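[job 0412] stage=fold_complex status=start
inputs:
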Amino acid sequence: MNERFLRLLLMAAALIGLSLLSLSLGGGNELPAALWGGDRIASLIIWEIRLPRILLAISGGASLALAGAALQAILMNPLVDPYLLGISAGASLGAALAIVLGFSFLSGAFWLVGNAFIFALLVALMVYALARSRQAGSYTIILAGLAMNFIFSALVGGLQYMAQEAGLRDLMFWIMGSLWNAGYTGVIFIFLILLPSLIILLSQAWNLNSLAAGAETAHSLGVNLSRLHLLVVLVACLLTAAAVSFMGAVSFVGLVGPHIGREITGGDHRFLLPGAALCGAILLLGADTLARLVLWPMDLPVGIMTALLGGPFFIYLLLKGRKNSWL
Amino acid sequence: MAVDGYPEPAAPPPLLSAEGIAYRHKKQDILTDISLNLRPGQIKALVGPNGAGKTTLLRCLSGYFSPSQGQVKLRANGDREKTRLLAYMPQQAPPSVALSVAQAVLLGRRPYLGLTVRPADISAVGQALARLDLSALADKAIDRISAGEYQLVMLARTLAQGTACLLLDEPLSNLDPAHQIRVLNLLRDLALHENKAILLSLHDLALVSRFAHRVILLAGGRILAAGEPAKVLTGEHLRKAYGIEMAIHTLPQGGMAFAPIT
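[job 0412] stage=fold_complex status=done
writing structure:
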C-alpha cells in the first residue's frame, strides 16, 4: 500500500518535471527571459500562452483518463473509452454547427466552446436517461453509445461536406483535438469539475473494486448497483464534456491512460483512479509538447500525436500483455 | 439418526427462511412454491439437474433477484445488517480487475470497511486465506492463478465476510477431489463449531450424501424431495429428477456411492 502511494508520488513528480520542461521548450530562452530578464514578450509567451496550454493538457488529460478508468470499472469492459458514450461526438456536432453554420446557443466568447459543451451535455443526458431506464445493462449502454457516435459523426460529416475552406480547417483542428486555444477560463472550468469528480469517484473506490468479481458478488456485498451506475455515468459524462469542449476530441487518452495507470498502480481503484488521472495528464502533456516541437514552428493538432504515440504503445501493451487479463 | 457424525440438531430457529417462493421470467415459471429454512449448525445441499432452478433459487435467497411471489425472511434489519448476516458466493465469473489475492479476499470485508483498512479486517483476511491454504498466493494477481485457485479465493472472500449464513453456488466446480474434500471438511467444521448455516448447490451426490445434513432435490423449479440424504437420494427420486437409473450403495465408511446404469 505504501509502495503504491509512493508510485503515485513519483508520477506526480514526473508530471511536475514534464511541466517545467514543457514550459522551457519552444522558440528560444523565453523562460529565463520572462523570469529574470523582465522581457515583456517572453513573459506573455510563458504566462499567457504556454502555461495555460500546459494546465489545459494536465486537466483535460486527467479528466479523460479518470472518466475512462471509472467507466471501464462500472461497465466491466476494458475497451470502454469515454468517447464510446457518444459525448465527444455530441460536442463535435455542437462545435461543427457553430463553426460551419454559425449556429450557437451562446454568443460572445463562448459561442464555440459553450455550444460544444451544451451538445455534449445533451448527449450525456441521453446516455444518463438510457442508463436509468429499465436498468439497462453494460452492453446496452455501450452499444447505444456506439449508435449515438455513428449518428452524430454522420451529422458532423455532413456539415464538414458543406463547410467553407476556413471553417473546414477550424473544424478539423477541433475534431482531432488541439490545445492551441488554451486559456485560463477553460483550465479553471475543467479543474472545477475534475477535483470534485475525483473525490466522488474515490469515495466509491471500494464499490468499484467489489465489481472485480462480478455484479452478483458486488450486490451480495451490499453495493447498490443501479445507484453506482448512475453516479459514475453522470460524473464521467461531466468530466468528458468539460474536457472535450475546451480541447476538442483528443483521442486515445481516455482509453490508454487507465491501462497504463493499471500497469503502474495495479487494479485497486483507491490507487488506480488518481494513477489513471496522472497518466492521462502526463500522456497529453507529453504529446502536446511534442506536437508543438516536432515541426516547429508549425503546431500539430495534439490528437494526431496522441493517436500516433498512443496507438503503437497500446499495441505494445497488448503484445507483452498478460494472458486473460485486462491487457 | 445422526448422519455422518452430526449430532441430532435441536432445531434452533432459522436464520433465513423462504416461504412459498415463486420466480417468473418472461412468462415462464422458473421456480414454483419453494419453502425452506436455513438453521445454524447445518449444511444443506441443493441438488438437481441442469436448469432445475438451483442458481435462480440462490439468487432469490441472496436478494439479487426478487421473487415474484412469496418472501425471503432474514433475521436482519436493513442492508448493512444483511451483508453482515448473509454471504453469497455466485458461480464463477472471470475476474475483471487485476486485484491481488489478498485484495480480492479483503472485498469480503466491504460491509465493515471505511476508507481505511483496520487491523481486524487484515486478520480476518489472513485467517480466511490460511483456512484455505492460500497464504502463499496472497500477493499474486487473481487473473494469474488457476481457475481452481480462483474458486478457493472467492470462497475465502465469502468466509472473510464473517457471516452466520453462507450461500454457495457450486463452490467445488473447479476443484480436484482432494480440494473438494478439504473444502467440505472446512464447511462442516464451520457448521459444527461456529454454528454457521450453509446452503450449497452441488452435483456430486456421493459428496452430498457424506457431508450434507439435509438435502433439497430440485427438478423443474419445484422441490421434488427434501430431508435427510438417505431419504432424498433414493433410486425413485433420482429417476424422477434426472431420468436415469442409478445403482446406489451405502458405504460402510459412511455416505453413499452412486453409479448411473442406464
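[job 0412] summary: Chain A has one domain: 62-320.
[job 0412] exit 0
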